[in-house]
């Protein structure tokens, strides 16, 4: 029963729009300054990298790992960073973690090699399935195909878990949790039932919307100002 609930909860969250996940993702996308680069360390930063002692940091004075977001921090576009600009944009002067770094985290920081090996094998297995032509790479077409397959799988699992009378669809009475809460939106044809097609459509639309979201510099700056 616990295993069934384990996959049911995230599947429901995706199908109804992933409201909590979307809010959490926005929070994660907003840069946060690490303890080592907080404003009270600004003088140390200037002392270490301001080689010509002009009170500014040029791009070439910064190590390569801190140059990627130079233009975002250089708000007046004069080609150098003032202490005030560094103070405001300190969050950008750091190496950014990516979701794919989880592989390195599991490998390097493991306190249980057997457990981490199991997690990594799960990732490896999933990636092999996505790589449909077995060329060792994942292209956009394979990713779209995998996204659609995941949506179909989620729909099938939900039907199996909630369809008590085994008629191939979910009635309002059978619906539970967020499926019940968003029943009208999911019931596209308003027939009083949610069928497999409607579940897959809802999951696919949410996945495509998430995949299509692009964060522009302007939007990032607006989030950072809030």
Distance between the termini: 43 Å
Q: Report the order of strands and helices.
A: HHHEHEHHHHEHHEHH
Q: Write down the Rg.
A: 24 Å
Strand order of the largest sheet: 1-2
Percent of residues in beta strands?
under 5%
According to CATH, the fold-level topology of the domain at 2-23 and 137-212 is Recoverin, domain 1
Helix content percent band? 55-70%
* Count of β-strands: 4
- Taken from the alpha-carbon principal axes, the silhouette is elongated
Task: Count the DSSP helices.
Answer: 12
Q: What's the CATH architecture of the domain at 2-23 and 137-212?
A: Orthogonal Bundle
Overall mean pLDDT: 77
CATH class descriptor of the domain at 2-23 and 137-212: Mainly Alpha
Uncertain ranges = 1-40, 214-226
The major beta sheet can be summarized as: 2 strands, antiparallel
**Structure class:** mainly alpha
Identify the notable features of this structure and list them briefly.
disordered N terminus, disordered C terminus, Recoverin, domain 1, 4 strands, two-stranded antiparallel sheet, mainly alpha
Structural commentary:
- With 226 residues, the protein is mainly alpha-helical.
- Among the domains are: 2-23 and 137-212, Recoverin, domain 1; 35-93, Recoverin, domain 1.
- It is 56% helix and 4% strand.
- The chain contains twelve helices and four strands, in the order αααβαβααααβααβαα.
- It has helices at 2-15, 19-29, 42-49, 70-73, 83-88, 102-108, 113-130, 140-162, 177-181, 183-186, 196-212, 217-225; strands spanning 57-58, 80-81, 169-171, 193-195.
- Strands 1-2 form a two-stranded antiparallel sheet. Strands 3-4 form a two-stranded antiparallel sheet.
- Helix 8 (140-162) runs antiparallel to helix 11 (196-212).
- The longest helix has 23 residues, at 140-162.
- The protein is elongated and about 75 Å long.
